[in-house]
From TrEMBL:
Naturally occurring in which organism (per UniProt): Gluconacetobacter takamatsuzukensis
Keyword check for Ribosomal protein: no
EC number: 2.6.1.11
UniProt remark on cofactor binding: Binds 1 pyridoxal phosphate per subunit.
Annotated GO CC locations: cytoplasm
Top-level EC class as recorded in UniProt: transferase
Binding residue positions for N(2)-acetyl-L-ornithine: 132, 271
Pfam families: Aminotran_3
Protein name listed in UniProt: Acetylornithine aminotransferase
Length: 400
């Protein structure tokens, strides 16, 4: 019989009762180091005092009013995001997929109302992940996610990442813009080459295209900068973000330049819940933390420390791991054995991780991970690798 909760996820048999910092505790008292952060989302970890207080306080005042009225928390958050980024204007929504849908709508509308209604197509990249709505499945282009969901939404073309010849060849008179993740998370932590991003920007300028960056996963401090594109020196015209923006409270945002955002006039786009007082109160606290002097530098330091952990694993276990890659606190360990086995071994040692494409174990911990948490991650992941090696040896013996 089908479970009451639709079985769209293969869930681990674990239920957490509470958390503290980068640690989660099960109902039966077991303790886990959370290197997954609810898929790169619990940016301030668990039970963050200011975040909890802001949500509780806001919930006790007013939780929802709709966008028919002014929302001071949203106005403040938007102004702060504008001040801290390339953007001139911000739209708040509820998830990454919704932010990406809006980003594509902005790009198309800016072309249509800017005199080029024929420009509707968006160039996307192999290995991309943009979400699960019908259009974003199409933008993602992965047949695994499209199976059985009917005709793909028209208007998305795909080319390989870091290949300028392929990209230029794909640009047609119908191309409206380019949508790229500066760091592809779901397909295995693949970084867009900064030079490639610079050339993509140049091509957009040359052909009158808009550059949209999907920073749903890589944004809001994850790479040690507020947004990952800052590492390349390239600025987009539009950017989507979500996941960590409100520390685990559901929220997404679209950041845009005036040149693109000005076409999204009253009534042209909307959302009931987006930019509500509760989500914005949470996101303002996240921004307080991210923009505090030294915090993003600390994310970089912690990223280097965690990368050293992965480096040591690759060195000591060349039979299990091929390489690590990533930037800041979005790191991937490419495994030579099925990644699920390493994830299980880590779980046995009390470490939560996420998998990604290309047989990669993905580490996207809370941005508040401490030095001691990192050291503990090193000890536990090493024990997990030893456990996995022993398991591999036993299986080989059984097979012989
Ligand atoms: C880069 C990127 N874009 C979009 C999404 C979709 O976000 P959501 O699940 O919030 O709709 C994800 C989710 O993993 C993502 O990593």
């Amino acid at each position: 019989m089908i479970p009451a909760l639709m079985p769209t996820y293969n869930r681990a048999d674990l239920a957490f009762e509470r958390g503290q910092g980068s640690w989660l505790y099960t109902v039966d008292g077991r303790r886990f180091l959370d290197l997954g952060a609810g898929i790169a989302t619990s940016s301030l970890g668990h039970d963050h005092p200011q975040l909890v207080a802001a949500i509780a306080q806001q919930a006790g005042r007013v939780m929802h009013v709709s966008n028919l009225y002014r929302v001071p928390q949203a106005e403040r958050l938007a102004a702060r995001l504008v001040a801290a980024s390339f953007a001139d204007s911000v739209f708040f929504c509820n998830s990454g997929a919704e932010a990406n849908e809006g980003m594509v709508k902005i790009i198309r509308r800016a072309q249509a109302h800017g005199g080029h209604p024929e420009r509707t197509r968006i160039i996307c990249f192999n290995g991309a992940f943009h979400g699960r709505t019908l259009a974003m499945l199409s933008a993602t282009g992965n047949p695994k996610y499209l199976d059985g969901f009917g005709p793909v939404v028209e208007g998305f073309d795909h080319v390989p990442m870091n290949n300028m010849n392929a990209l230029r060849a794909a640009i047609t008179p119908e191309t409206a813009g380019i949508m790229i993740e500066p760091v592809q998370g779901e397909s295995g932590v693949n970084i867009a080459d900064p030079r490639f991003l610079q050339e993509v920007r140049a091509a957009c300028d040359e052909f009158g295209l808009f550059l949209g960056m999907d920073e749903v996963q890589s944004g809001m401090g994850r790479t040690g900068r507020l947004f990952a594109h800052e590492w390349s020196g390239v600025t987009p015209d539009v950017l989507s973000t979500a996941k960590g923006i409100a520390g685990g409270f559901p929220m997404g945002a679209i950041l845009a330049t005036e040149a693109t955002a000005k076409y999204l006039t009253a009534g042209s786009h909307g959302t009931t819940f987006g930019g509500g007082p509760l989500a914005c109160a949470a996101a303002n606290v996240v921004l307080d933390v991210l923009l505090a002097p030294g915090f993003l530098d600390q994310v970089q330091t912690r990223g280097t420390q965690l990368a050293q952990v992965l480096d040591a694993l690759v060195d000591e276990f060349p039979d299990l791991f091929a390489q690590w890659r990533g930037i800041g606190l979005i790191l991937g360990l490419r495994c030579l054995v099925p990644v699920g086995l390493m994830q299980d071994a880590a779980l046995h040692e009390g470490v939560l991780t996420v998998t990604a494409g290309d047989n990669v174990l993905r580490l996207v911990p809370p941005l508040v991970l401490t030095e001691e948490d990192c050291a503990e991650a090193g000890r536990r992941l090493r024990r997990a690798a030893l456990r996995l090696r022993a398991h591999q040896a036993a299986s080989a013996e059984d097979a012989a």
